[in-house]
Structures are given as structure tokens and as C-alpha cells.
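Thread: coenzyme A complex, take 2
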Amino acid sequence: MAQAPSAHRTDVVFVDGVRTPFGRAGEKGQYWNTRADDLIVKAMIGLLERNPNLPKDRVDDVAIAATTQQGDQGLTLGRTSAILAGLPLSVPGYAIDRMCAGAMTSVTTIAGAIAFGAYDIGIAGGVEHMGRHPMGFGADPNPRFLAEKLVSPDSLNMGNTAERLHDRFPQLTKERSDLFGMRSQQKVAAAYAAGKIQPDLIPVAIKSDAGWGLATQDEGMRPETTMEGLAALKTPFRPHGRVTAGNASPLTDGATVSLLASEQTARDLNLSVKMRMVSFAFAGVEPEVMGIGPIPSTEKALRKAGLTIEDIGLFELNEAFAVQVLSFLDHFGIADDDPRVNPWGGAIAIGHPLASSGVRLMIQLARQFEEHPEVRYGLTAMCVGLGQGGSVIWENPHYKGAK
Ligand SMILES: CC(C)(COP(=O)(O)OP(=O)(O)OC[C@H]1O[C@@H](n2cnc3c(N)ncnc32)[C@H](O)[C@@H]1OP(=O)(O)O)[C@@H](O)C(=O)NCCC(=O)NCCS
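Output below.
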């Protein structure tokens, strides 16, 4: 009898990642007249053009996430967008949903297949057009959730879960959240001014009443933010609450996409190697405080990798809400303004198009790895609706030893 091939693990690398500029969701936003699937297709074409060494027929699979999989975000996005982006019909594709961690899950799912040896190359990303697909629209949560008190009523509204975090951890004050939000705006503005963000943006043709134009940058940024301005904002989720439009991620439209490969295939095809995947983990927490999800997922991913939090030299944490990032930082004993954390700002300023944000974190970490050869490991992590967290630990291929 022929022997079964032994189980083995192949090294997985992040070859490249790009995204559309993010837009403010809603009628006044730059993508109001743009289809969601066109956003992901545009990003995918940009990715393929940037990697001309990639033989398109070598792509083994395409995983694309969206939270609301209806209309122009439905129809098995990975397959439809692959065809529309000009990949050969022989390349299959599928859709993924883990709400905010959709794109992160596309990456880990494709990476799992590469690590197993089933695939050599895959495309992974996500899209969310929160203007055309408002959060929770058309959802029909099972009545048992509330009738049997399986989850608290606050669990279904993300802003309420952030207020719950402020309740649970009184040291996480509104002032700390506002300061974190303001710094995020300032860091993104500085990164834009230094030209750090733009190289990975794929411009998108957009149509408005004024005619055709080009989206070239993130639309939600508010570099003029001040603490006084933030203190005056309404608290939309609770009277006299602490969560505001200034310390929460805004409703956003956008798409991200990445190219993953086995390290050997990347080397054989002369593709870039921007990051090496070390470990990943997802974890569940009480849904009414979903923002703490990245704590157990990070602990799990660190354990799997045999690392500790001290080994992480750069953090890309999704800023769904400032309070939620602060709960993570407090847990691990990291200062609110630690320069290793979101050095180019985060979702409060850039936006958080739910199922696409995970790859945006990876795109930024990959760029920072290039600039920091003294850093060996980096973390991308995010919270997820209904009480989850996701974390991926990456190794810097440019690592040259500690300074
Ligand atoms: C918080 C939230 C409800 C605000 O929505 P919104 O009211 O449509 O937001 P806007 O951008 O219109 O901002 C509201 C007001 O705050 C002001 N504002 C926002 N950010 C500001 C800042 N940094 N500085 C000063 N003012 C600011 C706006 O100018 C606006 O003022 P106006 O009412 O006078 O026009 C919405 O962004 C939200 O739900 N965010 C969370 C999204 C989410 O849950 N994602 C999933 C995470 S798990």
C-alpha cells in the first residue's frame, strides 16, 4: 500500500497587499455611486498589475470577505471578483464572513491551505460598502439570543459594547479615549504628509453629480481634531455616554486585497516577501464586551508561536473604538502612546470598512517592517462583533538583529 504523504507545514508569506482609498459611507461619500464589487475588483486588478511576475493561472484560490453578503456584496465574491479582475476561469474563489475580521479570516484560511500544502498561491481580501449595506441591514438574529438571554441586548450594537467596556474598566476614561482618537488623527495626518500610506492605495474612478473624478485618498480623516472639539461631541449610543464619533471608527466604504504564497513559490517566481506568517488565532469573549476579543486571541497566537508580548516590536491594532484598543493596551501593560502601536494611526482616522480592515492592518505592518529591520515580530489584531477577537503574528523578513 502506498504510504500517505506525511503531514508537513509550509512557510506562508505575505507577498503584497493593496487597498482602495477608504470613503465615508453614505450619500455624501466618494463611493456612493460605486458598486461594492467594483471596489474589490479594482483593488485586485491593482494587486495583479503590481505583481507582473505572478502567472495568473498559478493562483490556487481567491477568498474575499464581506459582512453583508447581499446584492453587489453577494454571489460568492471571491469567484465573481476573480472573473471580473481578469483571472483565468480556471481560478476558483469563495466568500468569507467573520464580520470585522472577514479579510483577516480570508488571509488565515488561504494561509492554512498553503501551510497544508494544498495551495502554492492565493488571493485574500475583503470589502464593505457600509453606505450601500448598512451594518446589520436585513439581519434576522434568532429570537433565542435574547429570549433565552444567551447574549445581552447590548451585544448587537457595537457602540453599546464599547460603552460597556467603559463601564467595566472605569480607568478607561472618556478623556483617554478622546486623546487616543485625537492622536490617531494626528498620526495618520503625519503618515500622509510623509507619503507612507499612499503607495499601497489603488485610485478608483468615481462618479458624482459633478461628473467623473478619482478617489486617491482616505476620505474620513479629520486632522484638525482637538480635545475641546472632541469633548463637545454627542454620545450617540447612550445619554451622557463616553463613545462619540471622535473616538469610534466611522462608517466606511472600502476594499483590501493581498497575495499570499508559500515561501518557496514566492522565491521561485521572484515575488516579494514582505512578511512571514508565524501564527494566528481567533477567540471568543462575552459578546457585550466584544472589544476585549483581541486579548485572548493574541494570548493564544503568542502561545502557539512560543513568544511573549515583549517579543512584539510593532502592533497594528484595529481601532474599532478607542476604548477597545485601550483595554488591550492596559491588559498587556503597554502605554496609550507607545510608539510601537499603530505608528501611522488607525481606523478612527482612516476608517473601518468592516470585512476589509484586517488586510489594511497587514499592509501597514508590512511597510513598517521595511523601515524597522531591528524589529523581528509584529502583530495584527482586531475585535469582532458578537464577541470575538482575531490575531496574526508576523515575522519581518528584513530583520537584521536588534539594535
Ligand atoms: C459613532 C457614529 C454613530 C457616528 O456617526 P455619525 O453621527 O454619522 O458621524 P459623523 O461623521 O456625522 O460625526 C458626527 C458629528 O461629529 C463630528 N465629528 C466627528 N469626528 C470629529 C472629530 N474628530 N473632531 C470634531 N468633530 C468630529 C462631525 O463633524 C459631526 O458633526 P455634526 O453633527 O455637527 O455634523 C458612527 O461613526 C458609528 O456607528 N461608528 C461605529 C461603527 C462601528 O460600530 N463599527 C464596527 C466596529 S465593531
